[in-house]
Amino acid sequence: MANTEEFHWLPEDGMKTEHKPSIKTVRFGDGYEQRSPNGLNHSQRVFTCDFRVEANDRDSFEQFLVRHGGYKSFFWRPPGVNRKIRVVCRTWSATEHITYTDFSCQFDEVVI
Fold this sequence. Notes:
The chain is mostly beta strands. It has one helix at about 60-70; strands at about 5, 15-20, 25, 35, 45-55, 75, 85-95, 100-110.
């Protein structure tokens, strides 16, 4: 596997973190259900965050996301987390301003 790049931009305050555990559920006829984790790494996080990027850095920010194409993972250190995690960015949007661009991104934690 090629070297994994690191995303170095810092999000604005107010990042949202969502936990999305993957659970298997088996339902029985008497109303009983049994639940179990779906795999060893069944609880992944989804980070929704905004980035304000100055005009001179806009192209490199967007090229980073385009280069990873929504399927290649990269390293990122979320605020408040003391280690890098591996994420993919499957969706992002940009709002253009005169001297900066606001990007809204969703980073999905992945395990390789």
